Amino acid sequence: MPNLSQIKRQRMLDFLAQIKEEHKDDDAMLIALGEIESELNAKKYSLVWEQHEEAVDVKMRTHIPVFQKDTDREITAAEDEVYNFLLEGDNLHSLRLLEKTHKGKVDLIYIEIIMQRLIQFNGCCRSLPLAG
User: Fold this and answer.
1) Torsion angles phi and psi, residue 63, rounded to 5
2) Judging by beta carbons within 10 Å of its beta carbon (0-12, 13-18, 19+), is residue 5 exposed, middle or buried?
3) How big is the CA angle at 55 (ends 50 and 57), to the nearest 5 degrees?
4) Distance (Å, whole) CA 100 – CA 65
5) Closest Cα partner for 93 from 123, 70, 129, 64?
6) How would you write the chain as a 3-class SS string?
7) Are 87 and 94 in contact (CB under 8 A)?
C-alpha cells in the first residue's frame, strides 16, 4: 500500500507527463521538466510524518475524557501534603485532559511504553515480561 508521499509524488509525475506532452516542441521546457522529474524520482531517505487521523483524534472532537478516582489504589504519605498521582489510560486522552485540568501545574510527565514483542539486543533475542 503506497503512503501519502508516494501518492503525491505519483500525482506530480503524472502532471509533469501531461505538461511534457503539451510542450513537446519546447526543448528548454523539456530539459527543465526532466530535471524536476529526476529530483522527484531520486531516492530519498528521511523521516516522513504522514497526514492522517486516528479514530481517537476524531472522537476527541466531540467527546471529553474524565478522571475517575480509584480510592482502592490510592497511595498517600500524609493526608494534608501535596501528592502525585498515577494516571492510567490512553496517552492522547490523558494528555489532552491534563492540558485542560492541570495546565501550568505539572512538573513531569512520564509515559511508560510497554512493548509486547521480542526485543533484539546485541544480536540475541530475549522476551521481556509484560507488565501485569
Assistant:
1) -120, 140
2) middle
3) 75
4) 11
5) 64
6) CCCHHHHHHHHHHHHHHHHHHHCCCCHHHHHHHHHHHHHHHCCCCCCCCCCCCCHHHHHCCCCCCCCCCCHHHCCCCCCCCCCCCCCCCCHHHHHHHHHHHCCCCCCCCCCCCCCCCEEEECCEEEECCCCC
7) yes
Contacts of 65 (CB under 8 A, 6+ apart): 89, 90, 93, 94, 96, 97
71-124 pLDDT, tens per residue? 777 777 777 776 677 777 778 788 888 888 888 888 888 877 765 454 444 444
Return the domain boundaries, the chain: 4-41, 67-125
> pTM for the whole thing?
0.38
| Placement of cell 475517575 in the chain | 68
- What is the share, in percent, of the chain residues with pLDDT greater than 70? 76
